[in-house]
Design brief:
Blueprint: H1 4-9, E1 17-20, E2 24-28, E3 38-42, H2 54-75, E4 79-83, E5 94-99, H3 116-132
Antiparallel strand pairs: 1-2, 2-3, 3-5, 4-5
Motif (Histidine triad motif): 91-95
Protein name: HIT family protein
Keywords: Methyltransferase, Transferase
Length: 142
């Protein structure tokens, strides 16, 4: 059975994509700990990150670093948080989010009631920052 992430990647469910390449996508989570909270996801359905092929794990981290740079510039955060938990969806994903303290690392504080307008604005902020950083070829229009 496909994971919810595979359905988002396939366009069966909506997603606010900020990155698409042949191996990896990045889209905003529906329950952010901060505006700009993004999930970096391989297109391949692999449950645990420890089971990823080394090259795919490296690519996920390259994209996470690019998104992290966009988070820093787009949201004026002191840090870009990075977290792999993997209990929410059985499909490897890296959480990248603006962080000014440790609260962002507590996913129980995520807000599933974030207004759509706020999420749309955060996605556009990240797309713009990624383009400004030179990653335009991977940034979808919306």
């Amino acid at each position: 059975m496909s994971t919810v992430f595979s359905k988002i990647i396939a366009g069966e469910l909506p997603g606010r994509f900020v990155w698409k390449d042949p191996e990896v996508v990045a889209f905003l989570t529906i329950a952010p700990v901060a505006p700009g909270h993004t999930l970096i996801v391989p297109r391949a359905e692999v449950d645990r990150w420890t089971d990823l092929e080394p090259d795919l794990l490296a690519r996920l981290n390259e994209v996470a670093q690019a998104v992290g740079k966009a988070v820093l510039s787009g949201f004026d955060a002191s840090r870009a948080g990075y977290l792999i938990a993997g209990f929410e969806v059985p499909h490897t994903h890296i959480h990248v989010f603006p962080a000014n303290d440790m609260s962002g690392f507590d996913l129980s504080l995520a807000n599933p009631d974030t207004p759509a307008e706020e999420s749309d604005a955060a996605a556009e902020t990240l797309r713009s920052a990624l383009r400004d950083l030179g990653y335009g070829e991977f940034v979808p229009e919306s």
